[in-house]
Design goal:
The protein is an alpha+beta fold. The protein contains two helices and eleven strands; from the N terminus they run αβββββββββββα.
């Protein structure tokens, strides 16, 4: 069981890069042209985003240096909620914004990335992005390592053993960087290069091959 996951920015960048260079199925929410829906696996699977408000990825990337080797374009700061806001915000009045990504069929998700997650300058607290898979099992938490106010991008990524996913619920927890409200932006989702049904067929084919090999050895 995965339980709660966390990672630092450098490790997360490396892990997300490992996923994105191995396959083309990275949903890049930092690309200006990425809308609220799309297709995967040559159109065999569709994905759709909904949110607690207006979806927005219109703000240009404002970090001083864009992370490299991640498979993300960093044209924008990623997706947030609000007509004039590019971040998922957790307000002091218990209003927690959220974004949900739903797939038309199960897919194998193996990486998630956020932008604009920061630590307080005195490191007393930090912003935390959270992804709840398939209604909450597992819950993946990404903890900020970049310091607020330095111009850093607040990039945090995590990779993990591929999980069969139909829905991911993204939000930001209440811990803060001591600048305004707790917030962060959804940057990307990495997927294994084979959809779940095809992966199952490959496994069955492999098991069938092993059985045939054993039969041949017995008759030899």
């Amino acid at each position: 069981m995965l339980g709660n996951w966390c990672t630092g920015a450098l490790a997360g960048l490396a892990m997300f890069a490992g996923v994105s260079t191995a396959d083309a199925y990275v949903i890049d929410f930092t690309k200006a042209g990425t809308g609220s829906s799309g297709t995967l696996f040559n159109g065999s699977v569709t994905w759709d985003m909904t949110a607690s408000g207006v979806l927005n990825n219109s703000q240009s990337f404002d970090g001083n240096v864009a992370p490299t080797g991640t498979g993300l374009s960093f044209e924008t700061d990623g997706y947030g909620v609000g007509a004039h806001d590019d971040e998922i915000t957790n307000y002091a009045n218990n209003k927690m914004e959220w974004i949900k990504v739903t797939f038309s069929a199960p897919v194998l998700v193996n990486a998630i990335a956020f932008l604009d997650l920061f630590q307080a300058p005195d490191r007393s607290s930090m912003e935390v992005g959270q992804a709840s898979i398939n209604g909450g099992s597992p819950i993946i938490s990404l903890y900020a390592t970049d310091i607020a106010g330095t111009g850093a991008p607040g990039f945090v990524g995590a990779s993990f053993a591929a999980i069969s996913v139909t829905e991911i619920f993204f939000t930001v927890l209440s811990s803060n960087d001591n600048y305004g409200f707790a917030d962060g932006a959804l940057a990307g989702i990495g997927l294994a290069p084979v959809p779940v049904p095809a992966a199952g067929l490959m496994l069955l084919g492999g098991l069938g091959g092993l059985a045939a090999l054993r039969r041949r050895r017995k008759t030899a």
